[in-house]
Amino acid sequence: MSIKVLEDARAHPARDMAMRSMSCVETGDREGWLGLWAEDGVIQDPVGVSPLDPEGLGHRGIEAITAFYDKVIGPAELRFHIRQSFACGSECANVGTITTRVGGAISRTELVAVYCLNPQGKLASLRAFWEFEDTIGGVF
C-alpha cells in the first residue's frame, strides 16, 4: 500500500478511517473491514449504474456490503496508491490508483474515493468515482 500522502497528512477521523479501510482490504481482513461500517452504510463503487450495481442505487446495509466484499473485494488482490487527500467535515476524498489482480488479469483504476463517517465514527458511505469501461481489462 502506498499511502505515504495519507500518513504524512494532518490527522483527521475520516482520513484515518480511509487508511484503516484500505489496510483491511489489502490484507484481506474481511471481518475487520466489515466492522468499520455502520449498519445502514452504503457503497457506490463506482457511483451510478455499472455491472457491479445494475440499478445504480449502491449496496445499502451491512448485508449488501458483506455481499459486495465477498463478490468484488474478496476474490481480488488490491493495492492502493494514493496521491492526494482532502479531508473536511466528516468526509475525506482520496485521489489515486487501485491495482487489482484477479487470477492472471491485472487492471489499474484511476479514481476519487470519498469516505463519509456517521456521528458515531463508523463508515456511513464510500463513493468511488471511476470509469468502469476504462478499467475492466478482463477483470470483471
Question: What can you tell me about this protein's structure?
Answer:
The chain is α+β, with helices and mostly antiparallel strands. The chain has a single domain, classed as Nuclear Transport Factor 2, Chain: A. Helices cover 30% and strands 39% of the residues. It has helices spanning 4-8, 13-27, 30-34, 61-73, 132-135; strands at residues 37-44, 59-60, 77-88, 91-102, 105-117, 123-129. A six-stranded mixed beta sheet has the order 2-1-6-5-4-3. The relative contact order is 0.21.
Number of helices: 5
From the 3D coordinates, which CATH architecture would you assign? Roll
Tally of discrete structural domains:
1
Widest β-sheet, arrangement of strands:
2-1-6-5-4-3
In angstroms, what is the radius of gyration? 14 Å
Topology:
Elements: H1 4-8, H2 13-27, H3 30-34, E1 37-44, E2 59-60, H4 61-73, E3 77-88, E4 91-102, E5 105-117, E6 123-129, H5 132-135
